[in-house]
Amino acid sequence: MKCKCVIISAPSGAGKTTIVKQLLGKGLDLEFSVSATNRKPRGSESHGKEYYFISAVDFKKRIKNGEFVEWQEVYTENFYGTLKMEIERIWSHKKHPIFDVDAKGGINLKRIFGPLSISIFIMPPSIRELEKRLLSRGTDNPEKVQIRLNKAMEEMRLADQFDYIILNDSLEEATEEACSIVSSFLRK
């Protein structure tokens, strides 16, 4: 089996994590690529499951040592990245990594993995709907929601750099479309 990569990107609140979870349950030999971050865990998040939670000092040391495939400073002093060891771990299991990353991370991963990867951008139906979704989560104050919306507008301008754009105005339909695209790519 030739190992490939599936890259799913979207603004926060657009549904990418839900779609990734659905894809993982479809029997496609996918394994979730756990990103590293220096932010604090939210809610029930745990180290090694949703993220590798590391200190800012350790994150910067790993950058300097070349341990990341890609990394971004997503918000000021808030880093996210994909560790090389994570990709190697997944490929050693003969699985395809599936990434749940921001748009810039997705573009970088596509550039790095080229034809061995497929990139999908999950587009929210509108900024207004995205704001409603973010507010309904109840995890961020209004100021943080506004920061996320500003970033979302930046990310949406990058959508045309992805192989596919899926409009998520129906989670069921968006998941079906993503599954069809990913299944076809992995069969090639």
CATH architecture group name: 3-Layer(aba) Sandwich
Low-confidence stretches: none
Distance between the termini: 11 Å
Strand order, largest beta sheet: 2-7-1-8-9
What structural class do helix, strand and pairing data support? alpha/beta
Overall shape: globular
Estimate what percentage of residues fall within beta strands: 15-25%
Largest sheet: 5 strands, parallel
String of helices and strands? EHEEEHEEHEHEHHEH
Throw out a few tags for this protein.
single chain, 188 residues, alpha/beta, Rossmann fold, five-stranded parallel β-sheet, four-stranded mixed β-sheet, 43% helix
Task: Describe the overall structure.
The chain has 188 residues and is α/β, with parallel strands linked by helices. The chain has one domain: Rossmann fold (3-Layer(aba) Sandwich). It has helices at 16-24, 56-64, 84-92, 103-113, 127-137, 142-156, 171-187, and strands at 5-9, 30-32, 35-37, 51-53, 68-75, 78-83, 96-101, 117-123, 164-167. The strands form 2 sheets. It has a 5-stranded parallel β-sheet, sandwiched between helices. A 4-stranded mixed β-sheet has the order 4-3-6-5, sandwiched between helices. The longest helix is centred in the last third of the chain and has 17 residues, at 171-187. It is globular and about 45 Å long.
